[in-house]
Structure formats: C-alpha cells, structure tokens
Amino acid sequence: MGGLAEPIVDHETEGLDMARPRRGSRIGLQRWVRRGIAVAVVLALVPVVLTFLYLPSFVHPVSTLMLKDLATFSGYDRRWVSIDDVAPVLAYSVIMSEDGQFCFHRGVDLGELRGVVDDALAGEMTRGASTITMQTVKNLYLWSRPLGSVRKVVELPLAVYFDAVLSKRRIMEIYLNIAEWGPGIYGIEAAAQHHFGVSAKQLSRRQAALLAVTLPNPIVRNPAKPGPGLRRLAALIERRPPPAGADVGGPGYGQKKKPRPPAKNPPGGIRPPH
Prior knowledge:
- By secondary structure, the chain is an all-alpha fold.
- Helices cover about 55% and strands about 0% of the residues.
- It has helices at about 10-55, 65-70, 90-100, 110-120, 130-140, 150-165, 170-180, 190-195, 205-215, 230-240; strands at about 75-80, 185.
- Strands 1-2 form a two-stranded parallel sheet.
- The protein is globular, with a radius of gyration of 26 Å.
- It starts with 10 loop residues before the first helix and ends in a 35-residue tail after the last helix.
C-alpha cells in the first residue's frame, strides 16, 4: 500500500530476451564461416585461372617473392628470356641437379615421394622430393615459410594440375625465369649477367653447373665465388650425361614420355629438401 510495489517479471519474455543474443551470435558465426569458405574458394581458383593465362609464351609470370620485393620497395632484377635463348646445358644441369625425372613424371615424382614417406615412418632423416614443377607452383602461387607442411598439401595437387595444363618446355621456361639466384636476382638471364657477365645463351658447362647447384640456397651460395663444397657439387653435375628425353628446344621436348624407374638422388646431397 504505502511501500514499493513488487516488480512484475514475465518469465516467458525474459527467456526470449536471453535467447536473442545466443541466436544472434550463432548467426554471426555462420556468416563468418560462409565468408571464410568463399574466400578459400576464391583463393583456390586463382592458381587455376592463372595457369591457363600462363599458357601463351608472351605472358611473363612473376613469383610471390618478386611481389614481396615490390611491396617492400626492395626492387629486383629479372630479365625474361625465351627458353630458345638459354644454353641447353643450363637446362640439363638444372634437371640433373633438381629433378632427374622431370621429363617423365606428371608433376610429382611418386618414387621419391614414397621414399620420403618411408623414411619419415622409419624415423629417418627425410630427403627432398620436390620436383621442378612443384617448385614452380610454389614460386608462383605459394609461400616458403612458415607452415611448410600445410604448403606441401596444397602444392602436390597444384603441381599435377600445372603439369597437365602446361607443356614441360613451358614449365621449364617459367621456372628458369622466376627462380631466385641471389638477393633480388630472379631468372637465368639476370643471374648469368650478374654472376658471370654473359647472357644465358653464352653460359659454359661449368657456369651452368655452378648456377644449378646454387638453386637450393641462392642467398648463401654464390656461383661466381664457389667454395670447395659448391665446386664439388658442380663437378658432379658436369660429369653426368644429359638426361634422357631432355632435348631442350627440340621438337620433341615437353611431350609426355613413358615413365622409367625413378633414379636415386645424385650423390653429394645435390637435391635440396623443400
């Protein structure tokens, strides 16, 4: 009567008010999930579309490292050159050093990959199983570190797709023009001019071998001033005959050939872990 009136609480309304925030948070989460899926689909389609755009020889792709250098205002030196204007011995040397089965596999060297898996399951140190095609798609579309294992999961199917769309000749041409050969040095023409003062077409067998064995670690290794280890690796490459089927620049180069049993990695640890 004279005191304060007791507040009336509608328990049904109170329950609805508590449910609204929970329902709103669920809707917001679902919206973010949908957006995340849409972004993932778009990112997955980027390399699919770009690979087709890279089919014509007049298209000169750039690597993610080049884009990083541009974004950080570091600048870089890259001079695109046709594979016809690259000394065949350079392509031979790169194949022998990086991927002996390049002319035979379909983007992924299954024999080497099985060996890596077997070594990992046995608790042994794993060796590199990255092919030139895998390195090309990594340089074009992906990243090096961190999350290297996650990158590999994406890299494998991309390499198979890349190899199915592009010829071996075109893959080699792109790889040789985007590979890093020193800080801010990309592509074989810039590398040949920077390290030896000659064009890519004028490279000698020794120079080609030194450039090939520099690829695993181009920031540390200097082909113009090789140490004893680099000279030893280059000598191994020089002594090896050109790989079968690697008629670079010839009419048959880049055609699919019947696979042969996978060769073991060359001695001296030439092929790097990736």
